[in-house]
Amino acid sequence: MSKRTKIVFLGAGSAIFTERLVADLIRQKDVGDCYLVMHDIDKKVLGYMTAYTRMMVKREKSPVKIDGELSRAKAFDGADFVLVTLTIGGGPADLIDVEAPAKYGIVQPVGDTLGPGGLMRIFRMAGPFTAFAADMEKYCPHAMMINYSNPMTMLCRLVSRVSKVKVVGLCHGTWGTLGYLGPKLGIPPAEIEVLPAGVNHFIWFLRLRHKGRDLNPLLRKVLIDEGKGADRPVSTELFRIYGSYPSPGDRHLVEFLPYYLKDEATRKKYNLALRDNRATDRYRHEGRKACREVVEGKRPLPDLKASGERAMHIIASVVNNKNEVHYANIPNKGYIRNLPDDVIVEVPTRFGRKGAVGEKVGDLPLGIHSHVVRIVGTQELGVEAALTGDYRLALQAFLSDSIVTDVAVAEKMLKDMFRRSRKWLTQFRQ
């Protein structure tokens, strides 16, 4: 690693994500001499996001140096870390992912992980991510890719298949769940010892302790006996059945367990709200507009807001060889014993100069394992279809997903979604 730590933000136009990750970097005092390169294909957006983040650095008297770079080759050259925070197609594509399946009776509360929505995302993003990995191998072969983009598992798996790039996927789900459980238990979340394992957005707390004490009996008493888990009825029910608490929350979990989505009455029973993708897209545009207006002098630069993410902690841990443990998505390598070694799993991971090394968690319990194996199979099919551009494999991936229950519907839906997404699916020859 070079003396000056070079970090690339790939997708710097993700205004809110970029602003808060830069705030994290400014506050993370032990990264040392740091050079941040903002990269985006939109010259205008790149210009004002670079200017905006430079304003942040200047006001806080931070030593971080920031440049903007349209050329990916120049941005990647000699990088130590590449942070990815982008999606292909943006808001219009996200709407297709959710609204098209809904026409066929398939409801996805989020639609960015698996199911028709998540699979379409990997189909759209395969080409760009393959190119990112190839360029990293060429210009910064020792760098670590830290990916925040969804579908997290499939994108990390794709990168690990096509390259030797060190890829790590980060999600705040485990931290968010600990933030939910801590107040329920009357214990500061930071004091809870947890052993999470599974695949992204379908994680199970195989161990939950406080100062050596097993918290599961207390959690059962609080959530089930006292009814304090009623605000997350799916998670509480799964905890009752499987004996381990799931993460990151009901809306994500149910997309792997379609019996919770089978009809409107069931969704109402479990209080399953759907994400408003139109509102999310407006939020993105408002975030960009706010940054642009700060640069133009039309509004003041706001106070620093932490992201709640762990990327900068991880970078500091690697740079300083701290060997801190964070929760990450990495190639399995035996960490979960009863899953294949090459699939991507989410486990506690130690970060130091050796990169990312997972904690060996043993076997997933049989009941949980039965779900995860099925999920992994669909993810593998999705990645294979995305890489090969094989339309028949894309259909097979749809049909292997438990949320799809009818062949004729799957064929019509896939054809419809491909037609509406054609400009982003250049590898497919339907």
Model description:
The chain has 430 residues and is an alpha/beta fold. The chain has a domain at 5-171 and 300-319: NAD(P)-binding Rossmann-like Domain (Rossmann fold). It is 47% helix and 17% strand. The chain is built from 16 helices and 13 strands. It has helices at 15-27, 43-59, 72-76, 90-103, 115-139, 152-162, 173-185, 216-225, 233-242, 250-253, 264-269, 277-295, 311-319, 366-388, 391-400, 407-421; strands at residues 5-10, 34-39, 65-69, 81-84, 144-147, 166-169, 192-199, 202-210, 213-214, 245-247, 324-331, 344-352, 355-358. A 6-stranded parallel sheet has the order 3-2-1-4-5-6, with helices on both faces. A hairpin with a 2-residue loop joins strand 8 (202-210) and strand 9 (213-214). Helix 1 (15-27) packs parallel to helix 2. The mean pLDDT is 94.
SSE arrangement:
Blueprint: E1 5-10, H1 15-27, E2 34-39, H2 43-59, E3 65-69, H3 72-76, E4 81-84, H4 90-103, H5 115-139, E5 144-147, H6 152-162, E6 166-169, H7 173-185, E7 192-199, E8 202-210, E9 213-214, H8 216-225, H9 233-242, E10 245-247, H10 250-253, H11 264-269, H12 277-295, H13 311-319, E11 324-331, E12 344-352, E13 355-358, H14 366-388, H15 391-400, H16 407-421
Helix pairs in contact: 1-2, 2-12, 4-5, 4-12, 4-16, 5-6, 5-14, 6-14, 14-15, 15-16
End-to-end C-alpha gap: 44 Å
The tally of beta strands, per DSSP, is 13
- Count of helical segments? 16
Largest sheet: 6 strands, parallel
Task: Give the strand content.
Answer: 15-25%
Average predicted local confidence, pLDDT: 94
Task: Quickly describe the structure.
The protein is an alpha/beta fold and 430 residues long. The chain is built from 16 helices and 13 strands.
